[in-house]
Specification:
Chain lengths: ~170, ~400
Protein backbone atom coordinates (compact mmCIF):
# COMPACT_ATOMS: atom_id res chain seq x y z
CA UNK A 1 0.00 0.00 0.00
CA UNK A 2 1.41 3.35 -0.98
CA UNK A 3 -0.19 5.27 1.91
CA UNK A 4 0.49 5.06 5.64
CA UNK A 5 -2.16 4.12 8.21
CA UNK A 6 -3.02 7.74 9.13
CA UNK A 7 -3.65 8.67 5.49
CA UNK A 8 -5.72 5.55 4.93
CA UNK A 9 -7.78 6.25 8.05
CA UNK A 10 -8.64 9.75 6.83
CA UNK A 11 -9.36 8.41 3.36
CA UNK A 12 -11.63 5.65 4.63
CA UNK A 13 -13.36 7.81 7.26
CA UNK A 14 -13.05 11.37 6.09
CA UNK A 15 -13.95 13.96 8.75
CA UNK A 16 -16.12 17.01 8.07
CA UNK A 17 -17.40 16.04 4.63
CA UNK A 18 -20.17 18.18 3.24
CA UNK A 19 -21.47 21.63 2.44
CA UNK A 20 -22.30 24.57 4.71
CA UNK A 21 -25.20 26.21 2.93
CA UNK A 22 -24.90 29.60 4.71
CA UNK A 23 -21.09 29.59 4.83
CA UNK A 24 -19.21 32.74 5.81
CA UNK A 25 -16.37 31.89 3.46
CA UNK A 26 -15.86 29.49 0.57
CA UNK A 27 -12.59 28.49 -1.08
CA UNK A 28 -12.35 26.40 -4.19
CA UNK A 29 -9.17 25.28 -5.90
CA UNK A 30 -8.44 22.98 -8.78
CA UNK A 31 -5.19 21.21 -9.37
CA UNK A 32 -3.97 22.00 -12.86
CA UNK A 33 -1.73 18.95 -12.97
CA UNK A 34 -4.40 16.32 -12.63
CA UNK A 35 -7.80 18.01 -12.57
CA UNK A 36 -8.52 17.42 -8.87
CA UNK A 37 -10.83 19.86 -7.15
CA UNK A 38 -11.43 20.85 -3.55
CA UNK A 39 -14.00 23.13 -1.93
CA UNK A 40 -13.78 24.36 1.68
CA UNK A 41 -16.71 25.95 3.54
CA UNK A 42 -16.20 28.01 6.70
CA UNK A 43 -18.54 29.10 9.45
CA UNK A 44 -16.87 31.75 11.61
CA UNK A 45 -18.00 32.83 15.09
CA UNK A 46 -16.17 35.40 17.23
CA UNK A 47 -13.14 35.20 14.96
CA UNK A 48 -12.92 31.42 15.26
CA UNK A 49 -13.64 28.69 12.76
CA UNK A 50 -16.76 27.27 14.38
CA UNK A 51 -17.45 24.82 11.59
CA UNK A 52 -15.60 23.71 8.47
CA UNK A 53 -16.63 21.27 5.77
CA UNK A 54 -15.10 20.07 2.53
CA UNK A 55 -15.90 18.41 -0.75
CA UNK A 56 -13.13 16.87 -2.80
CA UNK A 57 -12.84 15.28 -6.21
CA UNK A 58 -9.52 13.51 -6.17
CA UNK A 59 -7.30 10.66 -5.18
CA UNK A 60 -6.86 9.00 -1.80
CA UNK A 61 -4.27 11.53 -0.80
CA UNK A 62 -6.42 14.52 -1.82
CA UNK A 63 -9.32 13.23 0.28
CA UNK A 64 -7.08 12.50 3.28
CA UNK A 65 -5.48 15.95 3.00
CA UNK A 66 -8.91 17.63 2.96
CA UNK A 67 -10.04 15.65 5.98
CA UNK A 68 -6.89 16.34 8.00
CA UNK A 69 -6.93 20.01 7.04
CA UNK A 70 -10.44 20.47 8.39
CA UNK A 71 -9.44 18.72 11.62
CA UNK A 72 -6.48 21.05 12.07
CA UNK A 73 -8.41 24.21 11.22
CA UNK A 74 -11.54 23.52 13.26
CA UNK A 75 -11.69 25.71 16.38
CA UNK A 76 -8.70 27.82 15.37
CA UNK A 77 -8.90 31.61 15.21
CA UNK A 78 -8.73 33.10 11.73
CA UNK A 79 -5.24 34.40 12.50
CA UNK A 80 -4.11 30.93 13.60
CA UNK A 81 -5.72 29.31 10.58
CA UNK A 82 -3.88 31.68 8.24
CA UNK A 83 -0.64 30.14 9.45
CA UNK A 84 -1.63 26.58 8.48
CA UNK A 85 0.68 25.44 5.71
CA UNK A 86 0.84 22.56 3.30
CA UNK A 87 3.66 21.16 5.35
CA UNK A 88 1.53 21.16 8.54
CA UNK A 89 -1.07 19.02 6.79
CA UNK A 90 1.48 16.63 5.29
CA UNK A 91 3.22 16.28 8.66
CA UNK A 92 -0.03 15.63 10.51
CA UNK A 93 -0.68 12.85 8.02
CA UNK A 94 2.79 11.50 8.90
CA UNK A 95 3.96 11.89 5.36
CA UNK A 96 2.68 11.50 1.81
CA UNK A 97 4.36 9.78 -1.13
CA UNK A 98 6.66 12.25 -2.91
CA UNK A 99 4.55 12.47 -6.04
CA UNK A 100 1.46 13.18 -3.91
CA UNK A 101 2.85 16.14 -2.00
CA UNK A 102 1.15 18.50 -4.43
CA UNK A 103 -2.17 17.29 -3.03
CA UNK A 104 -1.32 18.93 0.28
CA UNK A 105 -0.90 22.24 -1.56
CA UNK A 106 -4.46 21.90 -2.72
CA UNK A 107 -5.76 21.67 0.86
CA UNK A 108 -3.96 24.66 2.34
CA UNK A 109 -4.68 26.74 -0.76
CA UNK A 110 -8.40 26.02 -0.49
CA UNK A 111 -8.40 27.01 3.19
CA UNK A 112 -6.51 30.26 2.57
CA UNK A 113 -8.88 31.09 -0.25
CA UNK A 114 -11.87 30.47 2.00
CA UNK A 115 -10.36 32.79 4.64
CA UNK A 116 -9.75 35.51 2.05
CA UNK A 117 -13.33 35.11 0.90
CA UNK A 118 -14.53 35.46 4.51
CA UNK A 119 -12.45 38.58 5.09
CA UNK A 120 -13.61 40.13 1.82
CA UNK A 121 -17.22 39.55 2.78
CA UNK A 122 -16.57 41.07 6.21
CA UNK A 123 -15.07 44.14 4.57
CA UNK A 124 -18.03 44.37 2.24
CA UNK A 125 -15.92 43.69 -0.83
CA UNK A 126 -17.64 41.68 -3.54
CA UNK A 127 -16.61 38.06 -3.61
CA UNK A 128 -13.33 37.72 -5.51
CA UNK A 129 -13.21 35.67 -8.62
CA UNK A 130 -12.27 32.09 -7.79
CA UNK A 131 -9.21 31.39 -9.79
CA UNK A 132 -6.90 28.50 -10.28
CA UNK A 133 -3.49 28.39 -8.80
CA UNK A 134 -0.72 29.56 -11.08
CA UNK A 135 0.50 26.53 -12.95
CA UNK A 136 4.09 27.58 -13.26
CA UNK A 137 5.83 26.82 -10.03
CA UNK A 138 9.49 27.39 -9.37
CA UNK A 139 9.83 25.38 -6.21
CA UNK A 140 13.40 26.40 -5.50
CA UNK A 141 14.97 29.40 -7.11
CA UNK A 142 14.63 30.72 -10.61
CA UNK A 143 15.38 27.51 -12.47
CA UNK A 144 12.93 24.83 -13.61
CA UNK A 145 13.06 21.43 -12.05
CA UNK A 146 11.42 18.17 -13.03
CA UNK A 147 8.57 17.59 -10.56
CA UNK A 148 9.31 13.86 -10.56
CA UNK A 149 13.06 13.51 -10.15
CA UNK A 150 13.99 17.09 -9.22
CA UNK A 151 16.66 17.32 -11.90
CA UNK A 152 17.01 20.76 -13.50
CA UNK A 153 15.27 21.01 -16.85
CA UNK A 154 15.11 23.72 -19.44
CA UNK A 155 12.36 26.30 -19.23
CA UNK A 156 9.43 25.02 -21.30
CA UNK A 157 10.82 21.50 -21.67
CA UNK A 158 8.11 18.95 -22.39
CA UNK A 159 10.17 15.94 -21.45
CA UNK A 160 12.65 15.11 -18.69
CA UNK A 161 15.64 13.30 -20.15
CA UNK A 162 16.74 12.13 -16.72
CA UNK A 163 13.65 10.24 -15.64
CA UNK A 164 11.84 9.99 -18.99
CA UNK A 165 8.69 11.66 -17.67
CA UNK A 166 6.61 13.89 -19.88
CA UNK A 167 6.38 17.38 -18.47
CA UNK A 168 3.76 20.01 -18.80
CA UNK A 169 5.17 23.12 -20.38
CA UNK A 170 4.28 24.93 -17.17
CA UNK A 171 6.16 22.76 -14.71
CA UNK B 1 -13.95 -14.22 1.30
CA UNK B 2 -10.81 -14.23 -0.79
CA UNK B 3 -9.57 -11.25 -2.75
CA UNK B 4 -10.81 -11.21 -6.34
CA UNK B 5 -8.39 -10.27 -9.12
CA UNK B 6 -10.19 -8.18 -11.74
CA UNK B 7 -6.92 -6.75 -13.00
CA UNK B 8 -5.75 -9.38 -15.46
CA UNK B 9 -4.38 -6.78 -17.85
CA UNK B 10 -1.67 -6.15 -15.23
CA UNK B 11 -0.97 -9.79 -14.36
CA UNK B 12 -2.40 -13.19 -15.11
CA UNK B 13 -1.87 -16.10 -12.74
CA UNK B 14 0.18 -19.02 -14.03
CA UNK B 15 -2.04 -21.89 -15.09
CA UNK B 16 -1.34 -25.09 -13.10
CA UNK B 17 -0.01 -26.83 -16.22
CA UNK B 18 2.37 -23.94 -16.87
CA UNK B 19 3.56 -23.99 -13.27
CA UNK B 20 4.17 -27.73 -13.51
CA UNK B 21 6.12 -27.35 -16.75
CA UNK B 22 8.35 -24.72 -15.18
CA UNK B 23 8.91 -26.68 -11.98
CA UNK B 24 9.77 -29.73 -14.08
CA UNK B 25 12.27 -27.60 -16.02
CA UNK B 26 13.85 -26.38 -12.79
CA UNK B 27 14.05 -29.88 -11.35
CA UNK B 28 15.44 -31.29 -14.55
CA UNK B 29 18.23 -28.72 -14.55
CA UNK B 30 18.76 -27.98 -18.21
CA UNK B 31 22.19 -27.18 -19.57
CA UNK B 32 23.05 -24.32 -21.96
CA UNK B 33 21.25 -24.79 -25.31
CA UNK B 34 24.34 -23.47 -27.11
CA UNK B 35 26.61 -26.23 -25.79
CA UNK B 36 27.65 -28.82 -28.34
CA UNK B 37 27.53 -31.95 -26.16
CA UNK B 38 24.49 -34.04 -25.44
CA UNK B 39 23.40 -31.97 -22.41
CA UNK B 40 23.37 -28.90 -24.60
CA UNK B 41 21.52 -30.72 -27.35
CA UNK B 42 18.86 -31.80 -24.90
CA UNK B 43 18.38 -28.19 -23.76
CA UNK B 44 18.32 -27.00 -27.37
CA UNK B 45 15.64 -29.56 -28.21
CA UNK B 46 13.47 -28.31 -25.33
CA UNK B 47 14.02 -24.72 -26.47
CA UNK B 48 13.07 -25.52 -30.06
CA UNK B 49 10.00 -27.42 -28.93
CA UNK B 50 8.80 -24.33 -27.08
CA UNK B 51 9.59 -22.19 -30.11
CA UNK B 52 7.44 -24.49 -32.21
CA UNK B 53 4.50 -24.14 -29.81
CA UNK B 54 4.77 -20.35 -29.86
CA UNK B 55 5.09 -20.28 -33.65
CA UNK B 56 1.92 -22.35 -33.95
CA UNK B 57 0.04 -20.02 -31.62
CA UNK B 58 0.48 -17.11 -34.05
CA UNK B 59 0.56 -19.31 -37.18
CA UNK B 60 4.12 -18.37 -38.12
CA UNK B 61 5.37 -20.20 -41.16
CA UNK B 62 8.74 -21.04 -39.66
CA UNK B 63 9.62 -21.32 -35.92
CA UNK B 64 12.88 -19.53 -36.71
CA UNK B 65 10.79 -16.38 -37.17
CA UNK B 66 10.23 -16.36 -33.38
CA UNK B 67 12.79 -14.57 -31.19
CA UNK B 68 12.41 -15.14 -27.45
CA UNK B 69 12.79 -11.96 -25.41
CA UNK B 70 12.40 -10.76 -21.84
CA UNK B 71 8.83 -9.62 -22.54
CA UNK B 72 6.70 -7.18 -24.47
CA UNK B 73 8.80 -4.13 -23.73
CA UNK B 74 11.97 -5.70 -25.05
CA UNK B 75 10.17 -7.04 -28.12
CA UNK B 76 8.82 -3.59 -28.96
CA UNK B 77 12.18 -1.91 -28.38
CA UNK B 78 13.86 -4.53 -30.52
CA UNK B 79 11.36 -4.27 -33.36
CA UNK B 80 11.41 -0.49 -33.56
CA UNK B 81 15.05 0.29 -32.86
CA UNK B 82 16.34 -2.81 -34.64
CA UNK B 83 14.43 -2.03 -37.84
CA UNK B 84 15.20 1.68 -37.72
CA UNK B 85 18.93 1.16 -37.33
CA UNK B 86 19.12 -1.60 -39.94
CA UNK B 87 17.11 0.33 -42.53
CA UNK B 88 18.26 3.91 -41.92
CA UNK B 89 19.97 3.96 -45.32
CA UNK B 90 16.51 3.63 -46.92
CA UNK B 91 14.86 6.38 -44.91
CA UNK B 92 14.38 7.76 -41.45
CA UNK B 93 10.63 8.26 -41.12
CA UNK B 94 8.27 6.16 -38.98
CA UNK B 95 4.47 6.27 -38.69
CA UNK B 96 2.57 5.39 -35.50
CA UNK B 97 -0.55 6.36 -33.51
CA UNK B 98 -1.25 8.56 -30.50
CA UNK B 99 -2.45 5.68 -28.35
CA UNK B 100 0.56 3.37 -28.31
CA UNK B 101 2.10 1.92 -25.17
CA UNK B 102 5.02 3.82 -23.68
CA UNK B 103 7.39 1.11 -24.94
CA UNK B 104 6.56 2.28 -28.46
CA UNK B 105 6.29 5.99 -27.68
CA UNK B 106 9.59 6.15 -25.84
CA UNK B 107 11.46 3.95 -28.31
CA UNK B 108 10.37 6.36 -31.02
CA UNK B 109 11.29 9.34 -28.89
CA UNK B 110 14.77 7.90 -28.52
CA UNK B 111 14.99 7.54 -32.29
CA UNK B 112 13.77 11.10 -32.77
CA UNK B 113 16.68 12.30 -30.67
CA UNK B 114 18.91 10.41 -33.12
CA UNK B 115 17.55 12.17 -36.20
CA UNK B 116 14.55 10.04 -37.14
CA UNK B 117 11.19 11.70 -37.76
CA UNK B 118 7.89 10.31 -36.53
CA UNK B 119 4.32 10.93 -37.63
CA UNK B 120 1.81 10.04 -34.92
CA UNK B 121 -1.81 9.65 -35.99
CA UNK B 122 -4.90 10.42 -33.96
CA UNK B 123 -7.76 7.99 -33.43
CA UNK B 124 -11.50 8.57 -33.78
CA UNK B 125 -13.80 8.88 -30.76
CA UNK B 126 -14.15 5.10 -30.65
CA UNK B 127 -10.39 4.77 -30.33
CA UNK B 128 -9.61 3.39 -33.78
CA UNK B 129 -7.16 4.65 -36.34
CA UNK B 130 -8.22 5.07 -39.96
CA UNK B 131 -6.10 2.82 -42.24
CA UNK B 132 -6.35 5.43 -44.99
CA UNK B 133 -4.78 7.99 -42.66
CA UNK B 134 -1.87 5.59 -42.17
CA UNK B 135 -1.52 5.20 -45.93
CA UNK B 136 -1.61 8.98 -46.38
CA UNK B 137 1.12 9.46 -43.79
CA UNK B 138 3.56 7.18 -45.61
CA UNK B 139 6.26 9.06 -47.55
CA UNK B 140 9.16 7.80 -49.68
CA UNK B 141 11.27 8.21 -46.52
CA UNK B 142 9.04 5.90 -44.43
CA UNK B 143 10.68 2.66 -43.34
CA UNK B 144 8.30 1.43 -40.64
CA UNK B 145 4.69 1.67 -39.51
CA UNK B 146 3.94 0.62 -35.93
CA UNK B 147 0.31 0.30 -34.84
CA UNK B 148 -0.78 -1.66 -31.79
CA UNK B 149 -3.30 -4.46 -32.07
CA UNK B 150 -5.23 -4.19 -28.78
CA UNK B 151 -4.95 -1.04 -26.74
CA UNK B 152 -3.90 -1.81 -23.18
CA UNK B 153 -6.09 0.91 -21.68
CA UNK B 154 -9.30 0.43 -23.60
CA UNK B 155 -9.09 -3.06 -25.10
CA UNK B 156 -10.05 -1.62 -28.47
CA UNK B 157 -8.65 -3.52 -31.46
CA UNK B 158 -7.09 -1.71 -34.41
CA UNK B 159 -7.70 -2.72 -38.04
CA UNK B 160 -4.17 -4.07 -38.38
CA UNK B 161 -4.79 -6.42 -41.30
CA UNK B 162 -5.96 -3.50 -43.44
CA UNK B 163 -3.03 -1.39 -42.31
CA UNK B 164 -0.58 -4.23 -42.98
CA UNK B 165 -1.94 -4.62 -46.52
CA UNK B 166 -1.55 -0.89 -47.22
CA UNK B 167 2.02 -1.02 -45.92
CA UNK B 168 2.87 -4.04 -48.03
CA UNK B 169 1.62 -2.27 -51.18
CA UNK B 170 3.97 0.58 -50.33
CA UNK B 171 6.89 -1.66 -49.36
CA UNK B 172 7.00 -0.34 -45.83
CA UNK B 173 7.59 -2.68 -42.90
CA UNK B 174 4.69 -3.11 -40.48
CA UNK B 175 5.11 -3.82 -36.77
CA UNK B 176 2.24 -4.43 -34.38
CA UNK B 177 2.46 -4.35 -30.60
CA UNK B 178 0.18 -7.31 -29.88
CA UNK B 179 1.25 -7.77 -26.27
CA UNK B 180 -2.33 -7.71 -25.00
CA UNK B 181 -3.92 -9.71 -27.78
CA UNK B 182 -1.70 -12.65 -28.77
CA UNK B 183 -3.00 -15.68 -26.89
CA UNK B 184 -6.14 -13.74 -25.91
CA UNK B 185 -7.85 -13.54 -29.30
CA UNK B 186 -7.07 -15.53 -32.46
CA UNK B 187 -3.94 -14.18 -34.11
CA UNK B 188 -2.75 -15.39 -37.51
CA UNK B 189 0.35 -13.52 -38.48
CA UNK B 190 0.19 -14.67 -42.12
CA UNK B 191 -3.45 -13.70 -42.50
CA UNK B 192 -2.75 -10.30 -40.94
CA UNK B 193 0.39 -9.85 -42.99
CA UNK B 194 2.53 -8.24 -40.30
CA UNK B 195 6.32 -8.16 -40.66
CA UNK B 196 7.00 -7.85 -36.94
CA UNK B 197 4.82 -8.76 -33.96
CA UNK B 198 5.60 -8.13 -30.30
CA UNK B 199 3.92 -10.33 -27.71
CA UNK B 200 4.30 -11.57 -24.15
CA UNK B 201 3.73 -14.86 -22.34
CA UNK B 202 1.83 -13.50 -19.36
CA UNK B 203 -1.08 -12.35 -21.53
CA UNK B 204 -1.91 -16.04 -22.02
CA UNK B 205 -1.14 -17.21 -18.47
CA UNK B 206 2.54 -17.85 -19.04
CA UNK B 207 5.27 -16.41 -16.83
CA UNK B 208 5.99 -12.66 -16.72
CA UNK B 209 9.45 -11.70 -17.96
CA UNK B 210 9.25 -13.78 -21.13
CA UNK B 211 8.02 -12.68 -24.50
CA UNK B 212 8.48 -13.09 -28.18
CA UNK B 213 9.17 -11.06 -31.28
CA UNK B 214 8.01 -12.41 -34.60
CA UNK B 215 10.32 -11.30 -37.40
CA UNK B 216 9.13 -12.36 -40.82
CA UNK B 217 11.87 -14.08 -42.77
CA UNK B 218 13.82 -11.59 -44.85
CA UNK B 219 13.12 -8.54 -42.66
CA UNK B 220 16.30 -6.56 -42.04
CA UNK B 221 16.73 -6.00 -38.31
CA UNK B 222 19.66 -5.42 -35.96
CA UNK B 223 19.81 -7.13 -32.58
CA UNK B 224 18.99 -4.99 -29.56
CA UNK B 225 21.46 -7.03 -27.53
CA UNK B 226 24.79 -7.78 -29.17
CA UNK B 227 26.90 -10.72 -28.11
CA UNK B 228 26.56 -14.40 -28.93
CA UNK B 229 24.74 -16.06 -31.79
CA UNK B 230 21.65 -17.16 -29.84
CA UNK B 231 18.18 -16.82 -31.33
CA UNK B 232 19.49 -17.03 -34.89
CA UNK B 233 21.75 -14.04 -34.33
CA UNK B 234 18.85 -11.84 -33.37
CA UNK B 235 19.14 -11.80 -29.57
CA UNK B 236 22.38 -12.50 -27.79
CA UNK B 237 22.52 -14.00 -24.32
CA UNK B 238 21.91 -17.43 -22.84
CA UNK B 239 18.20 -18.15 -23.04
CA UNK B 240 15.85 -17.99 -20.06
CA UNK B 241 14.93 -21.60 -20.68
CA UNK B 242 12.72 -22.09 -17.62
CA UNK B 243 10.63 -19.09 -18.59
CA UNK B 244 10.60 -20.04 -22.25
CA UNK B 245 9.40 -23.57 -21.46
CA UNK B 246 6.64 -21.99 -19.38
CA UNK B 247 5.74 -19.83 -22.36
CA UNK B 248 5.71 -22.87 -24.64
CA UNK B 249 3.34 -24.72 -22.31
CA UNK B 250 1.10 -21.66 -22.06
CA UNK B 251 1.06 -21.28 -25.85
CA UNK B 252 -0.04 -24.89 -26.32
CA UNK B 253 -2.86 -24.43 -23.80
CA UNK B 254 -3.95 -21.12 -25.33
CA UNK B 255 -4.17 -22.70 -28.77
CA UNK B 256 -6.33 -25.51 -27.39
CA UNK B 257 -8.54 -23.44 -25.07
CA UNK B 258 -8.89 -20.10 -26.85
CA UNK B 259 -12.52 -20.52 -28.01
CA UNK B 260 -13.69 -21.65 -24.56
CA UNK B 261 -11.76 -18.88 -22.80
CA UNK B 262 -13.14 -16.22 -25.12
CA UNK B 263 -16.70 -17.45 -24.63
CA UNK B 264 -16.33 -17.43 -20.82
CA UNK B 265 -14.67 -14.00 -20.72
CA UNK B 266 -17.15 -12.44 -23.14
CA UNK B 267 -20.03 -13.63 -20.93
CA UNK B 268 -18.46 -12.00 -17.86
CA UNK B 269 -17.77 -8.80 -19.80
CA UNK B 270 -21.37 -8.61 -21.06
CA UNK B 271 -22.71 -9.29 -17.57
CA UNK B 272 -20.54 -6.50 -16.19
CA UNK B 273 -21.45 -3.98 -18.90
CA UNK B 274 -25.14 -4.72 -18.49
CA UNK B 275 -24.95 -4.45 -14.69
CA UNK B 276 -22.88 -1.27 -14.89
CA UNK B 277 -25.46 0.43 -17.10
CA UNK B 278 -28.23 -0.59 -14.68
CA UNK B 279 -26.52 0.32 -11.42
CA UNK B 280 -24.47 3.50 -12.03
CA UNK B 281 -25.46 6.56 -14.04
CA UNK B 282 -23.12 8.91 -15.85
CA UNK B 283 -20.58 6.34 -16.97
CA UNK B 284 -18.63 6.57 -20.21
CA UNK B 285 -17.55 3.19 -21.58
CA UNK B 286 -14.29 3.68 -23.47
CA UNK B 287 -14.06 0.16 -24.86
CA UNK B 288 -15.24 -0.38 -28.43
CA UNK B 289 -18.58 -2.24 -28.40
CA UNK B 290 -17.51 -4.64 -31.16
CA UNK B 291 -13.79 -4.41 -31.95
CA UNK B 292 -12.34 -5.10 -28.52
CA UNK B 293 -10.69 -7.69 -26.31
CA UNK B 294 -13.11 -10.17 -24.72
CA UNK B 295 -11.97 -9.54 -21.15
CA UNK B 296 -11.37 -5.83 -20.65
CA UNK B 297 -13.66 -2.88 -19.92
CA UNK B 298 -12.49 0.70 -19.50
CA UNK B 299 -15.13 2.87 -17.90
CA UNK B 300 -14.94 6.52 -16.89
CA UNK B 301 -17.21 7.11 -13.92
CA UNK B 302 -17.99 10.80 -13.79
CA UNK B 303 -17.45 12.94 -10.65
CA UNK B 304 -15.14 10.44 -8.97
CA UNK B 305 -11.42 9.81 -9.23
CA UNK B 306 -10.03 6.41 -10.20
CA UNK B 307 -7.43 5.93 -7.49
CA UNK B 308 -10.04 6.54 -4.78
CA UNK B 309 -12.32 4.01 -6.45
CA UNK B 310 -9.47 1.51 -6.68
CA UNK B 311 -8.51 1.97 -3.00
CA UNK B 312 -12.08 1.56 -1.77
CA UNK B 313 -12.62 -1.49 -3.98
CA UNK B 314 -9.45 -2.92 -2.47
CA UNK B 315 -11.11 -2.63 0.94
CA UNK B 316 -14.13 -4.41 -0.52
CA UNK B 317 -11.98 -7.28 -1.74
CA UNK B 318 -11.57 -6.49 -5.44
CA UNK B 319 -8.45 -5.56 -7.37
CA UNK B 320 -8.93 -3.27 -10.38
CA UNK B 321 -6.66 -0.91 -12.24
CA UNK B 322 -7.10 2.79 -12.85
CA UNK B 323 -5.77 5.23 -15.41
CA UNK B 324 -6.37 8.38 -13.43
CA UNK B 325 -3.54 10.89 -13.54
CA UNK B 326 -3.19 10.68 -9.76
CA UNK B 327 -2.54 6.97 -9.75
CA UNK B 328 -0.12 6.66 -12.62
CA UNK B 329 2.74 8.48 -10.98
CA UNK B 330 3.03 10.73 -13.99
CA UNK B 331 0.29 13.01 -12.66
CA UNK B 332 -0.99 13.47 -16.16
CA UNK B 333 -4.19 12.22 -17.63
CA UNK B 334 -3.68 9.18 -19.84
CA UNK B 335 -2.70 10.08 -23.40
CA UNK B 336 -4.97 7.29 -24.61
CA UNK B 337 -8.05 8.61 -22.83
CA UNK B 338 -7.39 12.19 -23.91
CA UNK B 339 -7.00 10.91 -27.49
CA UNK B 340 -10.54 9.57 -27.25
CA UNK B 341 -11.70 13.10 -26.50
CA UNK B 342 -12.35 12.67 -22.78
CA UNK B 343 -12.01 15.74 -20.56
CA UNK B 344 -9.34 15.69 -17.85
CA UNK B 345 -12.00 15.36 -15.16
CA UNK B 346 -13.74 12.45 -16.87
CA UNK B 347 -10.40 10.75 -17.57
CA UNK B 348 -9.73 10.99 -13.82
CA UNK B 349 -12.59 8.62 -13.08
CA UNK B 350 -11.39 5.82 -15.31
CA UNK B 351 -11.13 2.28 -14.05
CA UNK B 352 -9.97 -0.78 -15.93
CA UNK B 353 -11.70 -4.04 -15.18
CA UNK B 354 -10.14 -7.10 -16.79
CA UNK B 355 -11.45 -10.60 -16.26
CA UNK B 356 -9.57 -13.88 -16.19
CA UNK B 357 -10.40 -17.50 -16.76
CA UNK B 358 -10.76 -18.11 -13.01
CA UNK B 359 -13.38 -15.36 -12.50
CA UNK B 360 -17.04 -16.34 -12.06
CA UNK B 361 -20.44 -14.77 -12.71
CA UNK B 362 -20.99 -14.68 -8.94
CA UNK B 363 -17.82 -12.60 -8.51
CA UNK B 364 -18.97 -10.17 -11.20
CA UNK B 365 -22.32 -9.87 -9.45
CA UNK B 366 -20.69 -9.08 -6.09
CA UNK B 367 -18.28 -6.69 -7.78
CA UNK B 368 -21.13 -4.68 -9.31
CA UNK B 369 -22.64 -4.25 -5.85
CA UNK B 370 -19.32 -3.14 -4.36
CA UNK B 371 -18.67 -0.71 -7.21
CA UNK B 372 -22.09 0.94 -6.90
CA UNK B 373 -21.52 1.38 -3.15
CA UNK B 374 -18.03 2.86 -3.59
CA UNK B 375 -19.16 5.26 -6.32
CA UNK B 376 -22.09 6.45 -4.18
CA UNK B 377 -19.72 7.11 -1.26
CA UNK B 378 -17.21 9.05 -3.37
CA UNK B 379 -19.87 11.02 -5.23
CA UNK B 380 -21.15 12.04 -1.81
CA UNK B 381 -17.78 13.69 -1.19
CA UNK B 382 -17.31 15.15 -4.67
CA UNK B 383 -17.96 18.85 -5.36
CA UNK B 384 -18.47 18.08 -9.06
CA UNK B 385 -21.49 15.93 -8.36
CA UNK B 386 -23.28 18.74 -6.55
CA UNK B 387 -22.46 21.18 -9.33
CA UNK B 388 -23.87 19.02 -12.05
CA UNK B 389 -27.06 18.48 -10.06
CA UNK B 390 -27.66 22.19 -9.56
Amino acid sequence: MMYNAVVMDHFRNPRNVGVIEDADGVGEVGNPLCGDMMTIYLKVRDGRIADIKFQTFGCGSAIAVSSMLTEIAKGKTIEEAKRITNRDVAEALQGLPKNKLHCSNLGADALQMAIRDYEARQAGIPRPELKRKDEHEHSHGDKCYCPYCDVEVEEGATFCEACQHDLKEEH
Amino acid sequence: MSFVNLDHISANPLLPEVRRAMIAAIEHGYHNPSSQHRLGEEAAAALENARGEVAQLIHAEDPREIVFTSGGTESVNHAIKGVALANADRGRHIVTTNIEHNAVIRSLRRLKSQGFTVTSLSVDETGRVDPQAVAAAITPETILVSVMHANNETGTLQPIAEIAALCRERRVLFHTDAVDSVGVVPFDVREIGADLVSFAANAFYGPPGVGGLYVRRGVKIFPLLDGGVQEHNKRAGTENLIGILGMGAAAALARRDLPARMAHLSRLKEQFLRGLAESIDEVIVNTHPVHSLPHLVSASIRYVEGESVMLMLDDEGFGVSTRSACATGSLRASHVLLSLGLSHADAQGTILVSFGVENTAEEVHRFLGALAKVVATLRGISPLCRKSAS
